[in-house]
Structures are given as structure tokens and as C-alpha cells.
Amino acid sequence: MTPMATDLVTGAFGYTGSRIAERLLAAGRDVVTLTRRAQTSHPLEGRVRRLPYVFDDASLRQSLAGIDTVYLTYWMRFPRGHGTWDEMVANVARLATGARQAGVRRLVYVSVSNARPDSATAYFRAKAAAEDRVREAAGGNLSVTIVRPTLLYGPTDILINNMAWTLRRLPVFGIPGDGRYLVQPVLVDDVADLCLRLAATEEAVEIDAAGPETLTFNELVATVHHAVRSRALMTHMPARLVLGATRLLGLIVRDVVLTRDEITELTSSYLASESAREGTTSTRFSAWIDEHRAEIGRHWSSELERNFRSVQR
Questions:
Q1: DSSP-derived pairing of the beta strands 185-187 and 30-34
Q2: Mean pLDDT throughout 38-45?
């Protein structure tokens, strides 16, 4: 009997990683993950084998032994506690180098669109540095590919779901600046499918995971506004006022709603692809949001609850 192939998905209980893990399990593959999360009621609990969230050489050798493919979704939205961007980049480098040394066949790294060393924010600069570390690790049996999602959305996502939540409940929705900057929504399930297709090859591909619709932010908000039948007034505001309003909302929902850097990234059109304006995935945001209008934004999706409070200390 042929032994079951084993893949490592960092963040298998997270947003993108869980979609990748679900597809691998459905295909009959064994899935392991590195995690600090406390055991939860996550649908994949008990189906994905937990490994220590430790990045020293000895632990990684043990964790990566016998792995066919590494799906590297490991990252953070913003620094909090003791986490730093330098630490994130260093851990990506250790994982990628360890994968090569362990004889892993394939590494799929999930980055972000427009990651560049000269980007305006630390998040995007760190992603560019992590991409460099992944490229440097290629060699031996290991081939690597880099997938760069644009504006990720799907059920219970952070940005679109919480935008809908706000539009359902508040009388005013503030749009930073003129709202004419671009976004290119891509469905999380399409990103997971793309990652699996690329994992099955050996080619060193770098590709933006981008949906087929490029919208201005004004158009994106209007689309969600219409879908949830909101009566909120959509108004343009200086970025500093939007940031202040989201901080006030954050106190109410006990979450980080939007950061200064995220407003910069949004208004700089970083969440649209420069190389794939026609898209590399098939699901149209306007069709998806119309199909899911009844449930989108019914509950707040908490970044802190999902990625910080559920983590073991």
C-alpha cells in the first residue's frame, strides 16, 4: 500500500491555511502544522496533526522530515506583544532553509501583491524580504513558488465582512480620501485552489492571485452597501479622521479595526495587481457578494480573537 503523502501547512487553523488544509485532506493527504493555538472547536481540530511552534534547527529538522510540500502562510497583520517584522522574516528563512535541508520537494509561499523593498509600509517591505529568503532557499530537491494575493475576501474575512457589519449598523461610513484608489478582490478559496495547482508542478512561478474585477474603493463600498441594503451615508473623510473613527469603533468591538499603515496600503492601491488587472482567478466579487448578502456582516470578525487571544502563551 502506498503511504499517504504528508504536507505541512503553517496556519492550518488560520484563514487561508485552513482552506489549503481542507483541500489536501479531501485529496487523501496527511496534513501537519506548526501552531501556538490552544485546542479549539475549529472544524479541522483532530484532523491536522500539531507540531511544536519552534523555529530552531533541531525542531525544524524533526518537523520537516518526510514532508512533500510546505505551504507557508505564516505571517501577522501587525506587530503585537513581542512579535516583530524581523522575527517573521527570520522564521520564514529558517523554515525555507530547513525545507531544503530536509529534502522537501516543493514550497509554496503566500505573500502579498506589490511586496517591494521600497514599499511605503513595514508590512509590505517585510513581505518582500521574506520573498527573498524563500528564493534563496531554493535548490537541491526544493523548488519554490510565490503566490501574491490582492484583497483577500470570503466568509468571515476581516475587511469585507467587517465593512458589511459597519454598513449594517452605523449611520455613516467614512471613506479615506477620494476613494478612487484601486482594489482587486480575490476569493480565499480561489487562492487555495491556485496554491494547490502550483504545488503539483516543479516550476519556479511567481504570480499575483487576483480576482477578475478591479474596482475603485468607492465602487467596492457601494457594492457592499447595496448588497446588505444599508442606509448608511457614505462620505469621504481625511485619512486621519477615518483612523480616529476606527479606533473608537475598536474600543467598542474590542479589536483593531484598521491601522495607519493599512490605510496607506489601501490608498496607495497596493491591493490591486499591477501585472494582472484582468485577474488570475475566476470568481467575481460582485457576484459573490450578491450570493452571500444574507450572511455577510452579521457578526464581527475579530482579528485579536482569531490570531492573538486564541494563541497559547
A1: unpaired
A2: 83
